[in-house]
Amino acid sequence: MQKKPLARAVLVTFAAAALLGAGYLAGARHAARADSAFAATTSATGDKTDPKTGRKVLYWHDPMVPNQHFDKPGKSPFMDMQLEPVFADDAGTSGIKIDPGLQQNLGIRYATARRQDITEGFDAVGSTQFDESRADVVQSRVIGYIDHLYASAPMQRIAKGAPIASLFVPDWLAPQEEYLALKRSGMDSGMLEAARARMRAMSIPDGVVASLDRTGKAQTHVVLTSPETGVVSELNVRDGAMVTPGQTLAKIAGLSTLWLIVEIPESLALSAQPGMTVDAAFAGDPTQRFTGKIREVLPGISTGSRTLQARLEIDNATFKLTPGMLMRVRVGAGKPVSRLLVPSEAVITTGKRSVVIVRGGDGRLQPVNVTVGKDNGDETEVLSGLTDGDQVVASGQFLIDSEASLKSVLPRMEGSANAGAPAPASASATAAASQTYETTGRVEKVTTEDITFSHQPVPALGWGKMTMAFGKPSPTAFPGAKPGDVMHFAFRQTDSGYQLTTVEPVGGAK
C-alpha cells in the first residue's frame, strides 16, 4: 500500500521535468527563429528591418550618445539600457513628435502667430517737479531791515498776494518829507513832479506815493507779497536781518503748472521725440489722468538708472498734484503699424538667441531661431523667423524634452533632426565634445578601461540619477578611486563615449 503513493510522486516529478524541458526547447526555437528571421531580412535585402514594426532601420544608437551608431540591436556600452532604432522614414523629417496623450498630460498649449495693427508707443514712469520756468523771486531794491517775517519756513504754501515780509526803509523818510514840504509851500507842478521822480528813483512804490498825496503822512515800511500761488521754495532771511539792493529774500515756485519728467529706458531712447503724446495717471489714484505732449528730450543718459529724461508741462489748475508724485505714463505717437505678435511666454531666451518651438503641419515640433522686437503687453513682436499663422508652443516648452532642461531641449531636438546621416563630426559635435560636465557619485566598479558611478543628476545634459560607466583616459588614471568612494568628477563627450577628466574625493566619505 505504501508503494503506490511513492510511485505516484515519482511519476509527477518526471512529468514536471518533461514539461520544463519542452518549454525551454520551444523558447530556444522561437528565439532562434526570430534571430534567423532578422538575419535573413538583413542578408536578403541588404536592409535592416525591425521585426516588431516592419519599418526599415538605418541604425541603432544610445539616445544619450546619439553620434555613436551601431549596426545591430543590443545593450548600450555606455549606459544600462537597450539601444534604440532610428527608422528611415523618420530620418528626413525635422523635429520630434510627441504622443497627443502625453502632450495633454504635460499641459502643452499652442498659440498662433498673428499680425495686428498696433500704435507705436511704450510704457514708462514719471514724476512731477516744479516748473522752473515759472519760478518767481522776491528781492529788495533798497537798504533796509526785516521788520516782520510772515513766511516762517521753506516749502510753506502761500497764496497770490499774501505777505512775505515787512521791510523798514529809513532812507525813504527824507524824500517823502521834502515832497510834503514842497506841496505845503505851494510850489509849482514842475517842482512836485521832480520830487516824485526822485522818490521813484529811490524805489519808493507808486502806491506809497499815492498814499502820501492822499494822507499827507510819510511811510517807511513796505510789505513784500507773493506774485504767484505756490510754495516758498527758498527763504533766505530772518526777522531783524538787514537787506541790501538785489538781495533775494524768497523764491516762490508756482503750482498752477508742473513739469512731468518721464524716465525713458535706454533701449527706447531713440523712439522718444518732442511732440509725442503722453497719457499719465497718478499711481495713487488711477482716475486722476493728465495729458500733454513732450516739449523736449533732455540730453544725456542717467548713469544710475540708465534712462533718458523727457519733459512736458501738465496743467495743475486744481492744485491736486504736488512735486514728487509718481505717475504711470503711456507715450505714443504716429499711426498704427502692422506687427507679427506671439505670446511672450512662447519665446525662450537663452542669452545668446531667442527661440520658439513651432508645430509643423505633421504635428512635429522643432525649434526656430527668431528675432524679437518690442513687447506689447503680454505679447512680443517677432521681426524674423516666423510667418503669420504659424503654430507655436505657448506653454510646456520645458516639458517637451523628458529631462525638462532648456540646455538639453534644443540640442537634442536639433540632433534628432540631423540623425539621418551618420556624420562622423559636425560643428555641434565639436562644441559638445569641448564642453565639460560635473556631478557627484558613488564608485560602483573600477576597471582598467572605465569607472562605473551611481551619480547625481546632470542638469546640463538633462540626465537624472543613474548608474553608468565613464571611460578613463589611461589604464592607470585615477588610482585613488575605489568602489564605495563618493567622488566629485568631471567628464566630456568624445567619439567613443563619455570620458573622465577629473575624479576627486568628496570629504573622504565612503
TrEMBL record:
Give start and end of each CusB-like beta-barrel domain: 257-333
Q: Where is the signal peptide?
A: 1-31
Query: Where is the sequence biased in composition, kind Low complexity?
Result: 415-434
| A Pfam family | CzcB_C
Chain ranges of the Heavy metal binding domain = 59-86
- The segments labelled Disordered in the record are 414-440
CusB-like barrel-sandwich hybrid domain mapped to chain residues: 136-253
InterPro entries referenced in this protein's UniProt entry, alphabetically = 3HB_CusB (IPR058791), Beta-barrel_RND_2 (IPR058792), BSH_CusB (IPR058790), CusF_Ec (IPR021647), CusF_sf (IPR042230), CzcB_C (IPR058649), HMBD (IPR045800), MFP_Cation_Efflux (IPR051909)
Q: Which residues form the CzcB-like C-terminal circularly permuted SH3-like domain?
A: 341-400
Keywords, A to Z, come to: Signal, Transport
Q: Which family does it belong to?
A: Belongs to the membrane fusion protein (MFP) (TC 8.A.1) family.
| PANTHER family in alphabetical order | CATION EFFLUX SYSTEM PROTEIN CUSB (PTHR30097:SF15)
- Name of this protein: Efflux RND transporter periplasmic adaptor subunit
Q: Which organism is it from?
A: Paraburkholderia haematera
